[in-house]
Design goal:
With 131 residues, this protein is of the alpha+beta class. It has five helices and four strands. A two-stranded parallel ribbon has the order 1-2. It has a two-stranded antiparallel ribbon with strand order 3-4. The protein is globular, with a radius of gyration of 16 Å.
C-alpha cells in the first residue's frame, strides 16, 4: 500500500508530535504538496500546536513561502545564505487564531508581506555586495 504525499506528511507530523519533545523542527515539510493539501496540513499543524494540553510547543519551521511563514509564525527569521547567518528577525503583528482567507485580503497583511519580501531581498543583496 502506497501513501500519498499528504498522507506521508501527516504520518511524519504525527510521529514527531508523538515524541512529545519541547521543540519540533520542520524543514520545508509542505514544500512538495499541492496547494489544497498544503493548506489542510497547515491548519492541522496549527490545531495540534494549540491543543497540546494548553501548552504550546516551540516549532522551528523552515520555508521559502512568505505567505506560509506569515500565516504560521509569530516570528520570522530571515537568513543570509553561504554561510547561513541570521539577517533579521521580524515579529508577525497578527493575533491568533488567524483565518488565512480573511488575513490575505487585508491591507495590513499586504503591507506586512511587502516589508518581509523587501527584507528578504535586502538580505540577499547585501550578501552579494559583501562577496
Amino acid at each position: 500500500m502506497q501513501l500519498s504525499g499528504g498522507q506521508q506528511q501527516r504520518v511524519a507530523i504525527a510521529r514527531a508530535l508523538a515524541m512529545n519533545t519541547d521543540i519540533l523542527l520542520m524543514d520545508e515539510p509542505f514544500g512538495a504538496l499541492d496547494p489544497r493539501t498544503r493548506a489542510s496540513l497547515q491548519k492541522l499543524l496549527l490545531s495540534l500546536w494549540r491543543s497540546e494540553k494548553g501548552e504550546k510547543k516551540t516549532v522551528v519551521f523552515v520555508t521559502h513561502d512568505v505567505d506560509e511563514a506569515i500565516y504560521l509564525s509569530d516570528r520570522i527569521v530571515i537568513m543570509q545564505p553561504n554561510p547561513g547567518r541570521i539577517y533579521r528577525e521580524v515579529l508577525v503583528p497578527f493575533k491568533r487564531p488567524r483565518d488565512r482567507d480573511l488575513l490575505l485580503n487585508t491591507e495590513e497583511y499586504k503591507d506586512f508581506r511587502s516589508k518581509v519580501l523587501e527584507t528578504f531581498y535586502n538580505a540577499d543583496h547585501e550578501r552579494e555586495v559583501a562577496v
